């Protein structure tokens, strides 16, 4: 029986409507509008698209947002100064530096310059540490979106075997840490596979929930999936397609056609995890606004 499609676009719209209502209530109570600053260094086309989409989401929800577009040759110190200015700006509750940065800039140094209370990407070591030990913090947006997709689809990871293929700091490691916590909608047994794993299919075939996040087009085939498993495809890969007007198409890390015949449920690409990432960024920005009001003793 073909898999159920997990519609991330629909679920993300539901979340954004909830956030919009909460933001309106916050404004009515305090006069505060959640504010998000984007910093884009260089002219990476994909980064420009992502920042534009995030800015559009802010507009839809009535958030305040600014985008600082800096030339590729911007120095590390100049970028640090820009971040420090935003750290002290009370209208800005969240700061997002779009990655990747040009090679002459140390990404970790830049991420550590962001005030942890404004780190809505959840990449600052303080927030990563809080995630690992189970404290409340800003969860990285894509992993948080995966957990929310499972939750709103009625798929509880508790007691299940989750296999994650990929160990990046952006998706693989944080989703492993989120789902291993002794908490609701987590509490899973987690296996992480990566480039050093021998016979990945041995592990993927054991997964009750399989999360593919390695950036390798259509790597996971249907014969690598346990019948009835939940498949979450994080990959977004552009491959040549002479039949398309654009000359390319977007595919995930999972070969959708073969996986669709085996899995119990699956996220499509596009329209699965992607929209959830932006929704969770908006959720983190609202949370950051609330946290900063509490820190200033404006809210209880």
Q: What does this molecule look like?
A:
The chain has ten helices and eleven strands. By secondary structure, it is α/β, with parallel strands linked by helices. The chain folds into two domains: 30-115, Rossmann fold (3-Layer(aba) Sandwich); 141-274, Rossmann fold (3-Layer(aba) Sandwich). Helix 2 (45-61) packs across helix 10, helix 6 packs across helix 7 and helix 6 (141-152) crosses helix 10 (273-295). The radius of gyration is 20 Å and the shape is globular. It starts with a strand and ends in a 5-residue tail after the last helix.
Q: Determine the number of helices (DSSP H or I, runs of at least 4 residues).
A: 10
Structural class: alpha/beta
Biggest sheet strand line-up: 1-11-8-7-5-6
Unreliably modeled segments: none
Task: Kindly report the name of the CATH homologous superfamily of the largest domain.
Answer: NAD(P)-binding Rossmann-like Domain
User: Rg to the nearest angstrom?
Assistant: 20 Å
User: Percentage of helical residues?
Assistant: 40-55%
Query: What fold name goes in the CATH topology slot of the largest domain?
Result: Rossmann fold
Overall 3D form: globular
CATH class of the largest domain: Alpha Beta
Care to count the β-strands? Answer: 11
Q: Kindly report the average pLDDT value.
A: 96
CATH architecture of the largest domain: 3-Layer(aba) Sandwich
Distance between the termini: 51 Å
Percent of residues in beta strands? 15-25%
Taken in chain order, the helices and strands follow as EHEHEHEHHHEHEHEEEEHEH
The total tally of domains equals: 2
Largest sheet: 6 strands, parallel
């Amino acid at each position: 029986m073909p898999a159920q499609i997990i519609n991330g676009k629909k679920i993300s719209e539901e979340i954004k409507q909830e956030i919009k209502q909460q933001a309106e209530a916050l404004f009515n109570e305090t006069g505060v509008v959640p504010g998000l600053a984007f910093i884009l260094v260089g002219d990476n086309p994909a980064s420009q698209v992502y920042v534009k989409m995030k800015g559009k989401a802010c507009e839809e929800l009535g958030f305040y947002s600014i985008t600082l577009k800096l030339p590729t040759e911007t120095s590390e110190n100049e970028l640090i100064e820009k971040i420090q200015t935003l750290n002290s700006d009370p209208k800005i509750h969240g700061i997002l530096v779009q990655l990747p940065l040009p090679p002459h800039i140390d990404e970790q140094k830049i991420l550590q310059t962001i005030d942890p209370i404004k780190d809505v990407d959840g990449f600052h070591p303080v927030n990563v540490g809080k995630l690992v030990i189970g404290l409340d913090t800003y969860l990285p947006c894509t992993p948080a979106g995966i957990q929310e997709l499972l939750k709103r689809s009625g798929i509880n990871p508790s007691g299940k075997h989750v296999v994650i293929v990929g160990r990046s700091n952006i998706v693989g490691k944080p989703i492993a840490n989120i789902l291993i916590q002794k908490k609701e909608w987590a509490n899973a047994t987690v296996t992480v596979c990566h480039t050093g794993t021998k016979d990945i299919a041995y592990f993927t075939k054991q997964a009750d929930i399989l999360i593919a996040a390695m950036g390798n087009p259509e790597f996971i085939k249907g014969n690598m999936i346990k019948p009835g498993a939940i498949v979450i495809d994080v990959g977004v890969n552009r491959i040549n397609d002479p039949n398309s007007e654009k000359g390319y198409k977007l595919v995930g890390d999972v070969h959708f056609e073969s996986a669709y015949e085996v899995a119990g449920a699956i996220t499509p690409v596009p329209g699965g995890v992607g929209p959830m990432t932006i929704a969770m960024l908006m959720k983190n920005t609202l949370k950051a606004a609330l946290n900063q009001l509490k820190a200033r003793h404006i809210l209880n």
